[in-house]
Specification:
Distance between the termini: 39 Å
Strand order of the largest sheet: 2-3-14-9-11
Radius of gyration: 17 Å
């Protein structure tokens, strides 16, 4: 089940949900409107699952940054979100989709117990200017059935994520770089 606006606000007030910084005006009927952070990693070379991705990190200027097709951008959410009680589902929204921006298509699930600023995969259909802290998508909170199992207790590779994270698939590939 997806939490409603009132349920998200109540869960946050009860410290069951972390949204930092929090702005109650960003609540919509069934979601929280999250924003793009202030930095991007630009991955414009060849990608290889067996080695760490080489990226250039840039700060998005106040007057915006033009993103180009054919380039993988890794971004970050402005808000840190999480919950030991609820799972999260993060997606772009209609407003950025109408600009030809695809964001976070491959990994929208945030597990219980993982409070992070999300690493975002961003691709664009045409050149488009983006701005720091612009609304970029919707975050929903999902009620979980069964025994809670905090992500932090599983020892998985993204447990200690602090910023924009590259793929760590190379850690699993025999002969890959570690």
């Amino acid at each position: 089940m997806i939490l409603t606006k009132a349920a998200i606000a109540a869960a946050r007030a009860a410290d069951e949900i972390t949204i930092d910084p929090y702005d109650p005006t960003r609540l919509s009927p069934n979601a929280y409107d999250w924003r793009l952070g202030e930095t991007l990693r630009i991955c414009d070379g060849n990608l290889d699952a067996a080695i760490p991705t080489d990226c250039t990190e840039v700060t998005i200027p106040a007057n915006g940054l033009v993103l180009h097709p054919g380039v993988l951008y890794l971004g970050i959410t402005y808000e840190k979100t999480g919950s030991e009680t609820y799972a999260q589902f993060l997606n772009g929204d209609r407003t950025i989709g109408a600009l030809g921006i695809w964001v976070h298509v491959s990994a929208p699930l945030g597990h219980q117990g993982h409070a992070i600023r999300w690493t975002l995969e961003i691709r664009v259909a045409r050149p488009v200017r983006v701005f720091p802290r612009m609304t970029f998508g919707k975050l929903v909170f999902l009620h979980c059935l069964g025994t809670p199992a905090s992500y932090q207790l599983h020892g998985l590779k993204y447990t200690a994520s602090k910023g924009i994270d590259i793929s760590r698939l190379y850690e699993e590939i025999t002969g890959g770089s570690t």
